[in-house]
Amino acid sequence: MWQLVYAGLAGGRKGVPDSVAEHPQVFATLTAPSFGPVHNRPDDERRCRCGQRHDADDLLLGEAIDPRTYDYEGAVLWNWHAPALWNRFIIELARILASRAGLSERAWRMLVRIAYAKVAEFQARGLVHFHAIIRLDGAEDRPAAPGIDVSPEELCDAIRQAAAGARLDGDTDNGDTIDIRFGK
Question: What is the pTM of this model?
Fold first, then answer.
């Protein structure tokens, strides 16, 4: 897998030309929002919000600090809808990039293709988050450069905007809906 990902980033392997290294590409992490504070181990030696400094193997890690106020239903719906939210994010990203280029989405898609490799991973708090390499390619030919100039910084900014704008409704057991979105 590493060889394939590397080839997609740098080219020169597995039949991928070196030119793909010049395509705009970003490594992004998209996480779940907070559903309430959980026991954690901050990297900077601070204590958890509960006041303790947890050991790495502490069974409390990821557990709700106050189970009475933690939004378990929201957390379950987030995990259930996370794949659909990712799809909504990719659609939103294309719309944002097209708008910034002054093109319709259809015209933009004739020039650019969003390529990505993503991994879904559970955090200690039990919620899915995505790590992804997002690259822009030519619409018809992946080794070709995208038909529009986009800098990696512009792609980063569009990714942030798309992640903030991607939303779904999650249906609860009592007939209500909750807003499914990415965290900050």
Answer: 0.88
